[in-house]
Amino acid sequence: MTDGPKPHFTSRAEAELAARREREAAALRANLRRRKDQQRNVAEPKPAPDEPQLD
Predict the structure, then answer these.
(1) Whether the predicted pLDDT of 23 surpasses 60
(2) Which of 13, 39, 44, 48 suits a disulfide with 9, CB 3.0-4.6 Å?
(3) Rounded to two decimals, what is the model's pTM?
(4) What is the 3-state secondary structure (H, E, C) of the chain?
C-alpha cells in the first residue's frame, strides 16, 4: 500500500494545525482528569452520618 505525497502546508496552516492539536490534547487531558475524579468519587464510600439530617 503506497501513500501519495504528503500535502504541502503553508507555515500559517502548520501553526494552526499545531495549535488545534494542542487544544485537543489539553481537552483530552482535562476529560481524563474529570473522568478519574468521577470514578474516585464513586469508588470511595461516603461516611454514614451519626444523626439523621432533617430537611
Answers:
(1) yes
(2) 13
(3) 0.59
(4) CCCCCCCCCCHHHHHHHHHHHHHHHHHHHHHHHHHHHHHHHHHCCCCCCCCCCCC
